[in-house]
Amino acid sequence: MLTAEQIVAAQKANVETLFGLTNKAFEGVEKLVELNLQVAKASLSEAAEGVNAALSVKDAQELIALQAGLLQPAAEKAAAYSRHVYDIAASTNADIGKLVEAQTADLQAKYMSVVDAAAKNAPAGSENAVALVRSAVAAANNAFESVQKAAKQAANVAESNFQAMAATAEKATASTTKSRRAA
């Protein structure tokens, strides 16, 4: 049987975990806000420079060259911004995953200790029922671990795909700029 102290300790651990998860989520939001503020400041400054450059243009060809010169940096910055957002999300997700894994492992250990204590106090002849409960717990733990591994593999595949897509986009942007300069 669970004692009142064990229940209070479990509730306290749950509250601490909740606050830990909340803090990690807020850290991710703070990083996104900081990134967005940096992007907004840089965009404002670049817009002012672009307007000043456009006002000093003397003919249509110079304007076309100015526009072409502004397109590649904009595409590169958009790709860099996407990478930063992805990195922040991946980092926050990894931190939350670590907290959840640690809490899950702790809960599994505590549950097994409760099962073991119940098994010691079980009446004679209930060995099969205790073995069945232990088997069910082991199966649930194995299933959970398999899901965790699959989720990690899926995250790794998604990250690889994102990196490949970003690299392809950067190469395409660079080759488009080179072909415009050549023309």
List the helices and strands and how they pair.
Layout: H1 4-55, H2 60-120, H3 127-182
Helix pairs in contact: 1-2, 2-3
Fold and architecture overview:
- This protein is 92% helix and 0% strand.
- With 183 residues, the protein is mostly helical.
- The mean pLDDT is 82.
How would you summarize what this structure contains?
By secondary structure, this protein is an all-alpha fold. It has helices at residues 4-55, 60-120, 127-182. Helices cover 92% and strands 0% of the residues.
What is the radius of gyration computed over CA atoms, rounded to a whole number of angstroms?
Answer: 28 Å
Proportion of residues in extended strands: under 5%
Given helix and strand content, the structural type is mainly alpha
Helix content class: over 70%
Count of extended strands = 0
Query: What does the oligomeric state look like here?
Result: single chain
- Main beta sheet, described? none
Query: Low-confidence segments, ≥5 residues, pLDDT <50?
Result: none
Tally the helices: 3
Cα end-to-end separation: 81 Å
Can you write the helix and strand succession as a string? Answer: HHH
Large-scale geometry: elongated
Return the average pLDDT rounded to an integer.
82
For this entry, give a set of tags:
mainly alpha
